[in-house]
Amino acid sequence: STVSRMKRSLLLNFGKRDAYRFIDRVRLRVEGGRGGDGCIAFDNFGAGRKRPCGGNGGVGGDVFLVADRQTYDLSVSARHFKAEDGDHGGSSQMHGRNGRATVVKVPLGTVVRKVSLRPNDWGDFDKEYSEAGDLDSHHAAICVARGGRGGLGNDIESGGRRGKSLRNHKSPGSRGSVAFLDLELKSIADVGLVGFPNAGKSSLLKCLSNAKPAIASYPFTTIHPNIGTVIYRDGEAYTIADIPGLIGGASENRGMGHSFLRHIERTRLLLYVIDVSTYHEFETLPAEASEVPPPSAQFQLLRHELRQYSPSLLGKRCMIVANKIDVDGYESGLEELRRGIKEMLKVQGADEIADLPQIFPVSAKRGTQVARLAKAVRDELEAIKLEEEEMLARHEGDPDLLLPDGTRLGFERD
Asked: 320 lies in a domain?
């Protein structure tokens, strides 16, 4: 019937939306494998002569979280991961096989916190969080659940000097450790695109990289971060993220502001994408008649939201991408942007004029001047990487050192 077809269509569409949902936070239960039991067995040498030969149980497998550069979000296959149990010991001194470890791949920039429950004075429990690790490099790993120890068999050689009273004794394997984890993805890319809705971030991402984001002429086309990889001819590559468009009040969590802003914290470089095609509208229309602020106001508002959320974000290296130069009259918008930024820096302090960000006029829609922007981004990332290496060499082992992308050094992993 028509109603049945409509219900089936709704279910299919819901499934498609859920399949492409970007997951940046998840809670997991992880459990190490149980150790195998020891075995009681005897070799018979005749005439009542027996020799203990029961093998030990195998050790349970561990659970590891491993950072993988090919994994882009926390859409893991399950919420509960358990490593393989160790096999039981056997006769003839056959020890049980150790359980295989379980490896859970997570994106680079994943912060791991262990969740524990502590009884309170009201007969309830309070949640306590403790840092367990910060997976910020390819193949970085942390063991989050240990496997249980294998039980001992009655074999004299493997069990050491055991008295006659233990000849008929074996021990069971112990359970693996259990942990509840909160995983949060903070560092999703080397470069973050920041801008108002419909500023052209998705078009720029598609033009620069291999990503295929949804693109349309209305605001809020991007509702989850899109990740792309920019690959150069010599094999060098970096990742770039299209952060969903910010709105006024994002720092107060309007429009899912906090969930978007935290993705910016651990990027190395920010690209402010500014729509310079809007200024000519303001020359003929009152300000309240346009939905998009003039170019310089866009930049100021974006910086204001970042400052309100975390003042350290203003210290990040940045560039300004003046987009939509394919629209007639963009020159006035570009000039207004340059003039407005210089005035803003003068108000903030004369010393900051030297920190005037580079402005790159581009047309993401037509690809105009995008190659020049890509080269400049690579040069800037290489300079940042060199700066991080020098800082690391000067302060090796300093637990209080923060790199420009927000990575904390000297953290001890389990």
From this structure: yes
The lowest-confidence range among 145-154, 179-188, 275-284 is: 275-284
Buried b (16+ CB within 10 A) or exposed e, 109-125: bbbbbbbeeeeeeeeee
Domains in the chain: how many in total? 2
Mean pLDDT for the chain?
77
**Separation of alpha carbons 72 and 264, rounded Å:** 15
Identify the three-state secondary structure at position 279: helix
In a shared domain, residues 273 and 125: no
More confident residue, 188 or 141: 141
Percent of the chain with pLDDT over 70: 72
With b meaning 16 or more CB within 10 Å and e meaning fewer, what string describes 360-380? bbbbbbeeebbeebbeebbeb
Look at residues 147, 165, 185 and tell me which one is the last residue of a structural domain.
185
321 and 262 part of one domain: yes
Q: What is the CATH number of the domain that holds 153?
A: 2.70.210.12
Domain extent at residue 114 = 22-185
Question: Could you tell me which residues come within 8 angstroms of residue 4 by beta carbon, excluding any fewer than 6 positions away?
Answer: none
Q: What are phi and psi of 83, to 5 degrees?
A: -75, 165
d(CA 25, CA 126): 20
DSSP string covering 11-44: HHHHHHHHHT----EEEEEEEPPPPPPP---EEE
**Of the residues 151, 166, 185, the one at which a domain ends:** 185
Query: 404 lies in a domain?
Result: no
pLDDT score recorded for residue 273: 92
pTM for this model (two decimals)? 0.63
Instruction: Using the predicted structure, report yes or no on whether residue 221 has a pLDDT greater than 50.
Output: no
In angstroms, the CA 389 to CA 356 distance is 25
